[in-house]
Amino acid sequence: MSGRRSGLADFLLTALAVVVLLQSTALAWVILGSPDRDRLLAQLKRQPIETIVEVCTVPPAEA
What's the rounded mean pLDDT across residues 27-41? Predict the structure, then answer.
């Protein structure tokens, strides 16, 4: 049974790593594709985000 738990833990850690990698890639893609990259980066420095969904759904505050 402990071998099964270890396999599950390995799977979950790998899945988490993949999610983090995809989220980082998506955020970079949004930033690089933004027409006002400097304003978006300044907004992210002032108010960090938890997920890429926040960038896509919530309009950034006016600078």
Answer: 88
